[in-house]
Amino acid sequence: MNAALWTTMSEVSESDESQKVCIIMEDIPMDALKSFAADYANLLTQSRLMDHLPELARISVSLLGKGVGPALVIETSDRTPDELAEKTARAAMEDLLDESHCTASLKSFVNRIVVGLEACPYTKNPDLSGTGLEARGVNPGPVGYRFSKSSDACAAVASFWTSVCELLSVPESEISTTLLSLPAIGPGNDREAHARFAAVVELISRNLCLFRGDGVFGLVHFHPAYERNLIHPVNKPAFGHLPPQSWLRSMLRHNGNVEQAKSLTDKDLEMSNYQRRSPHTVINILRASQLNAAVGAKSIVDLEILEDGTTEKASGIPLYSRNVIRLAGQGEEKLQSAVENEMNMSFLGEGA
Fold this sequence. Notes:
By secondary structure, this protein is α+β, with helices and mostly antiparallel strands. The chain has helices at residues 2-14, 30-43, 47-50, 81-91, 99-116, 153-169, 191-210, 248-254, 258-263, 266-270, 288-295, 317-330, 332-345; strands at residues 19-24, 59-64, 71-76, 123-125, 128-129, 141-147, 177-181, 217-222, 282-287, 301-304, 311-314. It has a six-stranded mixed beta sheet, sandwiched between helices. The protein has a three-stranded antiparallel beta sheet with strand order 1-3-2. A hairpin with a 2-residue loop joins strand 4 and strand 5. The two termini are 41 Å apart.
């Protein structure tokens, strides 16, 4: 359902003229269609997100269920001059992108951070995932690298659901996990680029969780300017994101790294963001079965966040603690230089 809806929304979003499309979905429960339409209508009222998803403002979704249907009606209005200018500026990046360059730059990041610094202990090379989980019922399998050069948010969500459908249709021996590159979504490493990235991946996470897809897949979000303190909500868990930075000292103490919890500066803790600073926007789509095998239910603990005894549920503490310490030891200059080199590799005419 979602793949069909977002692909259609992507198609009508691409056109500058008004359109009206009716999608009949006789095999989809009415409640599912109601949920989609209601959530989308609610999204349009949320300025925190819509300020960075301007192309959605001209698209409406309504439910049709009498006589024909059940069905969803998707309508767009003519693009205004300001909306045309926004689209033109946003889409200018697309012609500079090439799938082979982007994949090469992403593999460089995976090799450097995920493999080299062991940010994920179950990935031993950029093309193979799930290594070391055989005793828990998971066999290593290929990493699927997927790519969309579109700068449109609807197209990004459609590409995500296409990747999800692909994972659902093949065994993990064919595709263990997927890395979806979306290099025209929030390109660059400034605050505006990060805000665009954060809004689009929140839209994707929200759409997955709306239909309880978070029980089937886990997400991990990456961006060259990734900063956890700029992700909503700042001091609470956010699906697909690092734990709140305000939790890191508590996590270190809980893991037995008491000395580092005391000695690491706030700037040192910020280096944790570099485990998510890829050369462009990327979403890692993980099978929940692999996540459960990797961390297990016992990894969820009550973490004391504040001195007054306030606790939060937290998981992955040993891994996140280790990554904090290792990245702090790398130093910002070395880490940032590597990110910028990999960013340059993503564009035509750059890299080797």
